């Protein structure tokens, strides 16, 4: 049986216009910082860093998970209170 070359790959699609608006970066830079930012970001980073350092052994990072959980509880309770008061 003779060897044959495989067929050429199909041509790449071309798009007439970009899906991202040209002024996207300008609009994004003007976007206001909202009060929905995660205030527990540092605790989250520490817990992930601990997991990376300990080869994803969760038992070695209990302290960091506890810190993150407590921070998240306080944050969510604060948001609930603001929502009840009509400020959120």
TrEMBL record:
GO terms for biological process: mitochondrial respiratory chain complex assembly. It is found in: Mitochondrion intermembrane space. Required for the assembly of cytochrome c oxidase. It comes from the Eukaryota. Gene3D superfamilies: CytochromE C oxidase copper chaperone. Keywords: Disulfide bond, Mitochondrion. GO terms for cellular component: mitochondrial intermembrane space. SUPFAM superfamilies: Cysteine alpha-hairpin motif. This is Cytochrome c oxidase-assembly factor COX23, mitochondrial. The lineage of its organism: Eukaryota, Fungi, Fungi incertae sedis, Mucoromycota, Mucoromycotina. Residues 1-13 have a biased composition (Pro residues). PROSITE patterns: CHCH. Residues 1-25 are annotated as: Disordered.
